[in-house]
Design a protein that fits this description.
The chain is α/β, with parallel strands linked by helices. The protein has seven helices and eight strands; from the N terminus they run H-H-E-H-E-H-E-E-H-E-H-H-E-E-E. It has a single domain, classed as Vaccinia Virus protein VP39 (Rossmann fold, 3-Layer(aba) Sandwich), CATH 3.40.50.150. Helices cover about 35% and strands about 25% of the residues. Helix 4 links the parallel strand 2 and strand 3. The longest helix is centred in the N-terminal third of the chain and has 21 residues.
Amino acid sequence: MGNANVSNVTIRPEEADFFSKLARDWWNPKGPMASLHQVNPVRMAFIRDAIDAHWPDAPRAARPLAGKTALDIGCGAGLLCEPLARLGAAVTGVDAAAENVAAAAAHAEGVGLDIRYMAGEVAGQDIGEFDLVTSVEVIEHVSDKAAFLRDVAARLAPGGLLILSTPNRTAASRLLLVGAAEMVGYVPRGTHHWEDFVTPDELEALLADAGLRVTAQRGIAWRPGKGLHLSDDLSLNYILSARHA
């Protein structure tokens, strides 16, 4: 698990192993990670709005993250790192699975993007602080969520912006995200463990304990004819921005 010592390990080894087996197919939009390709533009719409609200000069900029640093924790094969780099950021991606990092680095090189990728736990990396920190669909795979968020907060520079997304723990998410989605193959079987999902209230309290306050929050919902979209309905999945309190 990289340079992390035992006390800093928050990603369960079996979770890292599960996703590492998917690394080679991560960039196939019709492969086992197809759901991530479909949700990525929705996440990016929220992230761009959050960037524009956070930095006064951003709304007028084609590359609003130029001159800024970004860290994606649990980066997988780089689906979020690459659009952040295209917005101008100097991007670092960290993932507990070395296979994911290798796939991410190879893809970035292939499309001509200079992104630094590192394998291991974020707590074990000597990488300093970042203007933007993102971690999408990660905290539900973490054993000690409070420790993980303390590690996240430690990476956020003063005046920085944090973006998190995660499934909500509701009856609807149990039925649709865990049951139906795995049954029809929308996500690989074993992706989600419903009891590890975090509600918005729980996550806001955990963030507060880590010295962070939520600044915006939207649901990521789905409906026939519209597909995945930002919504006021938080029952399946939600995405939020936060900053130091």
